[in-house]
Specification:
homodimer, 308 residues, alpha/beta, Rossmann fold, seven-stranded parallel sheet, 12 helices, 7 strands
């Protein structure tokens, strides 16, 4: 199947959406089209929005869309939803709230399911961002749900990271923040009208003071009412105005990590093909039987598979 | 370096700990020792404990250790800590609480840092479980912090999964539970004395009634006081008593996923060596420069690296 690369590059949303769907479904020709448009990207300001479940990320993104549209800029959102590896269904949660922008041609929202795959962020997200970038969106948000690996990955795929927290999420969440603080360019205490918000802001101020690197902007928002959102937009504009050399240095560091992630995914794909499935065993299916029977260890099995 | 495989197999904790440290540090000879002990494992009952941050997993594991020790069985814990990819430090949180078992020779606790690597659970965790299994621990807990991928991975590395929730963690957390429900063999509402616990139990009962598969045991605990912990132990014993054929079928399904994960990690390692670092560029370092300059797309770059 041939994709209309020229229409994607001209900013045609239908063509861009068709290509993203085809990439998700791994249709023939989709990847060739992605490679063709890739060199035309690199102009978008890509912003990661991350934080623990329940802090109000989607509500904040929704408010940011409104603010950016008011400035007249187009904006795209790639929202990563954790899915069950069994049902394959996405857990949209309050993502639906953003749908009020559905009739605005200047807003494009793409939900991606991670499908329980390792490095789920790198594969589909990088591809979707590359398409939206090539299609000319000047601002692209990448919203990730959940704590852990995805939050770290998002720093590898974006020009700036907004870390969102909220008061009253427990001590362990506080501890997790230490890792997030290190990737944050903007740090937000959302639900800033709730009990504990002052305390959270004070705690974060103290933690930031201890950090070795330049402190991120620390802001209070009430995303549901729009309070503080203008300040977030201003902080993002300041980051967007950083020298190109600085942005490029970050992108160079990211390139290696991205390529490594893809190399790992490709190897898994090849090994999966060699193993096959229960109903359609591949040429090396017997290796898995040996591992299950403990006559072969999984590390030797992986070595054997990578020689395919 | 040669490791005393016989001492590990005889249950010597120092030898087991030395091997696990060596595996973590990728010392020469460590992996050969792991391959040698692997066929001697497979006897342990391996239980994953997972759930969102702040639900009290560590407190629950601590209470379970006490209950299992009271029955006279030895127990090991592999606790996975999310770490910053920058500082490399583990975020122990209330993990330290478990240290009251530190003087008990029948308890072995190993904290593993994920180091921000993709599929972090599969590499170090599988190795640590294989060592503890070969060393004769009849019960091994694998505790994972955080939502998302790690929670799915844990079902691939264990014989049974305990999913822990707590009241009052917000709607998004509720949504996330749908994915977790599918991997749960035992489902616990911890902090069961708090406001909202009855509601959480009722909600979960309703969600489970809608599920296609056999419902997990649903239990209420107050891990900090020990309330309900005996019932959790009883539920685990029931799972442990499942027919061997059932357990083996699960392990066969897991073998394929584990081998695929290792194959992916190996490919990343090889690609990383080919790229090298900024200070010590590898033979294919130029590929990353091309990706950063957008004269090469990252997918073609990964293909080039996998031909090394």
């Amino acid at each position: 199947m041939a994709f209309d690369v020229d229409r994607v590059l001209a900013g045609d949303l239908r063509a861009a959406a068709a290509l993203m769907r085809a990439l998700d479904d791994e249709l023939p020709g989709a990847h060739e089209a992605l490679r063709e448009i890739y060199p035309h990207g690199g102009r978008a300001f890509v912003v990661g929005i991350t934080g623990s479940p329940g802090v109000g990320k989607s509500t904040l993104v929704d408010a940011l869309i409104t603010a950016i549209r008011a400035r007249g800029e187009r904006v795209a959102v790639v929202a990563i939803d954790p899915t069950s590896p069994f049902s394959g269904g996405a857990l949209l949660g309050d993502r639906v709230r953003m749908q009020r922008h559905a009739t605005d041609d200047g807003v494009f929202i793409r939900s991606l399911a991670t499908r329980g795959q390792q490095g789920g962020l790198s594969r589909s997200t990088s591809a979707a961002v590359a398409v939206l970038d090539a299609a000319g969106f000047p601002v692209i948000f990448v919203e990730t749900v959940g704590a852990g690996q995805a939050e770290v990955d998002v720093a590898d795929a974006t020009d700036a990271v907004v870390v969102v927290t909220a008061p009253g999420l427990g001590d362990e969440v506080q501890a997790l923040k230490a890792g997030l603080l290190e990737i944050a360019d903007v740090l937000i205490v959302n639900k800033g009208d709730r009990e504990g918000a002052d305390r959270a802001l004070a705690d974060l101020t103290n933690m930031l003071a201890l950090g070795a690197r330049a402190a991120p902007a620390l802001l209070r928002t009430v995303a549901s009412s729009g309070e503080g959102v203008a300040e977030v937009v201003a902080a993002l504009q300041a980051l967007r105005g950083r020298p190109i050399a600085e942005r490029d240095a970050r992108r160079r560091r990211q390139a290696a990590r991205q390529v490594l992630a893809i190399a790992g995914e490709r190897a898994r794909d090849r090994a999966r093909a060699a193993i096959g499935s229960e109903n359609a065993p591949g040429p090396l299916a017997a290796i898995i039987q040996d591992v299950a029977a403990r006559t072969l260890d999984p590390w030797s099995a992986a070595d054997a598979l990578s020689k395919v």
